[in-house]
């Protein structure tokens, strides 16, 4: 939580669940922005933690909230369309998968609750890009934008605001592993990856560029690009809706 004694010109943000009502209201009155990180509990190979998607979503959400102000809600650790259900892949353990119907219902009910709390901008950053999981969240956001035209619901994945040469959708590959090395290096073990063969989805649960090349420095480049582009979009939303 942001415990600094901010001047009235300093952006204020905080973790919703860690704040008292008067603190929440102080932030909400100036920046009625709700941030909802959305992760997953999913197998990410032997080299990455099960909660990679959640770690990524939470930290990247906080990075943005620190710039724009607003309130960061607890991470939703629920996802559909995990690697355990991918055709031809056999990783049945260490993934907790939920139905597409439940994901849609939870997103709809969460958004309705945030409307009742009088937030003007709702930002859902999805750390899990399984299909149609991400599309479901974006479809719900689109429907709510039509239902509540005086508010804005932005559901997206981090790679959608980053140049493709720096990051594309991947599963525990170079991009995600570099982000994990940047945010939580103690949770990554690159030595667990094989050294004598090509990395594959079927054997290693990796889809994308070779994670053995991942570095914290590359993760930092991704984060800086994300912050630059996402904050620019948020500035436009703030001008329009706040």
UniProtKB/TrEMBL annotation:
One of its GO terms (molecular function) is hydrolase activity, acting on carbon-nitrogen (but not peptide) bonds, in linear amides. The keyword Hydrolase applies. Transmembrane segments: none annotated. It comes from the Bacteria. InterPro entries: Creatininase-like_sf (IPR024087), Creatininase/forma_Hydrolase (IPR003785). Keywords: Hydrolase, Metal-binding, Zinc. One of its GO terms (biological process) is riboflavin biosynthetic process. Its cofactor is Zn(2+). Belongs to the creatininase superfamily. This is Creatininase family protein.
